[in-house]
Amino acid sequence: MTEVAPQEDTAVSWAGTVAGDSDAFARIVREHQAMVFSLALHCLGDRASAEDLSQDVFLQLHRNLDQIESPAHLKFWLRKVASHRAIDAARRRRWWPKFGLDEIPEPAIRTPAADPLLMRRLAKVVKTLPETQRVIVVLRYQEDMDPSEIAQVLEMPVATVKSYLHRALEMLRKKLGGKKE
Predict the structure, then answer these.
(1) SS3 state at 99
(2) Coil, helix or strand for 172?
(3) 5, 34, 130, 153: which sits with the fewest CB atoms below 10 Å from its CB?
């Protein structure tokens, strides 16, 4: 007769299994690398920097794997770390030469846009947003996260996330020549 482990032991055994199994960690990387890379690329606008940031995020994950409680916690943790690292990297690069998003190819996971010219123009305008607003816009519209989820990832109040998002959308409307409804 087999015993069923208590629910709280499941998370510990999940992390322990993954921590000791290099194949399991490789599966985690393969499953989540597109999300982490895409988030980094859209926030930084530079493919090489996004690749470096993604590698750093997964290295940090490997070092902290014992703290991960479940697959859902893993996804939350990856988004949180990638977002914070992208904001930090964007702030450090303020004085670096600027690259336009139109010079960087889109990630392979992206579906073709209905209007490529509009999407290219929108990507350029999103790139001009301040770092935190840019990350919030990317998390909201690329990662399809709710403001409450974004607030958890960025460790800020939901009202602050909504305020940043509202201001970012106003800025985008003005820059794109749209009118406020």
Answers:
(1) coil
(2) helix
(3) 5
Neighbours of 53 (CB within 10 A): 24
DSSP, residue by residue, 52-74: HHHHHHHHHHHHTGGG--SHHHH
pTM of the model: 0.58
Instruction: Round to whole Å and give the CA distance between 169 and 140.
Output: 11
Q: Is the pLDDT of residue 51 over 90?
A: yes
H-run or E-run covering 24: helix 22-44
According to the model, what pLDDT value does residue 67 have?
Answer: 87
**CA neighbor of 40 nearest in space, from 61, 18, 28, 56:** 56
Tell me the C-alpha to C-alpha distance, in Å, between residue 95 and each of 86, 92, 111.
Answer: 16, 7, 33
Contact status, residue 46 vs residue 104, Cβ threshold 8 Å? yes
Give the single-character DSSP code of 155: T
Nearest Cα residue to 37 out of 67, 82, 87, 4: 82
C-alpha distances (whole Å) from 37 to each of 7, 74, 88, 121 are 33, 16, 16, 21
Instruction: Name the nearest CA neighbour of 50 among 98, 84, 82, 18.
Output: 82
